[in-house]
Specification:
The chain is an alpha/beta fold. It has three domains: 103 residues, NadA-like (Rossmann fold), CATH 3.40.50.10800; 96 residues, Rossmann fold, CATH 3.40.50.10800; 83 residues, Rossmann fold (3-Layer(aba) Sandwich). It has 14 helices and twelve strands. The protein has a four-stranded parallel β-sheet with strand order 2-1-3-4, sandwiched between helices. α1 packs parallel to α13 and α2 runs parallel beside α3. The longest helix has 16 residues. It starts with a helix and ends with a helix. The site of 1,3-dihydroxyacetonephosphate (13P) has 9 residues, from loops.
Length: 306
Amino acid sequence: MNFIEEINNLKKEKNAIILTHCYQNIEIDEVSDFVGDSLYLSKMAANTNADIIVFAGVYFMAQSAKLLSPNKKVLLPNLNSGCQMADMVDVENLKRFKAKYPNIPVVCYINSTAEIKANCDICCTSSNAIEVVRHLNTNKVLFVPDNYLGKFVQSKLNDVEVITFNGFCPTHLRIRPQDITEARETYPDALILAHPECHQDVAKLADFVGSTKEIMVFAKKTDNKRFVIATEKGVADRLNRDSKIENWNKEFILINENIICPSMKLNTLEDIYRTLKDEKFEITIDSNVAIKAKECIEKMLLLKTK
Ligand code: 13P
Ligand code: SF4
């Protein structure tokens, strides 16, 4: 079966779109309407006229799309594609964290469930976390669930204390400081680009730290010819593909071949086809949770951050 053709036919027939995160297997781009990072995809989910959104990403991303487009059918191809970091905080331990530091605004990374968002003040993504915290104009914030993104924000802001929850991304934490020093020795002419979910000892050694989108924009516009990518494999794959197609004449080397998010890589073209054909698995969210969680994301979107 030609899955690409079948998916495109189903998309037309059902007025569906496919939103794809840059960590997905690259062949899924062939059938995607929008490919990008979590901030970009949440904006696309909020603005679409489609009847069905297929989210080629992880569970919290599909949930966010449903929160922003509650009247649309949102489908996730694999129910097992959870984000390990998002699953590190539940409502009970969030409550304990808040009780330990009362009356402090809580910022939650978009990598969190709807239940967590419903219990936080404002959402952020790795693209706008610094701006969101700065906007709160307060001297203390709680930051959940990512300890390392929180610490990265803290390193950029002097006049606010960022108190972080102890969550982390197992994929990004596989990058070690020695990977960076070894990459410098092997590729002395390369610039090293890292995601803020990396450990701060890794981030400190990188030439540039930014979200998925910021890394991709930086890599494209910077004159250097070689880059080491210290984030998920999908980013390096897409940069190498685009470099070839658009003749940038640049090389992107993944810091370590193991930097692969297992949940992100579950989806195949066949899964996307089955999702569209059978219209499952549909995302549903309890309406009380949904109202509050939506507010948490919308506050971020209203800030019109980059
Ligand atoms: P972005 O916000 O950069 O898309 O990252 C999402 C993510 O899950 C990173 O691990
Ligand atoms: Fe979650 Fe990490 Fe995978 Fe991103 S890379 S979806 S933070 S487990």
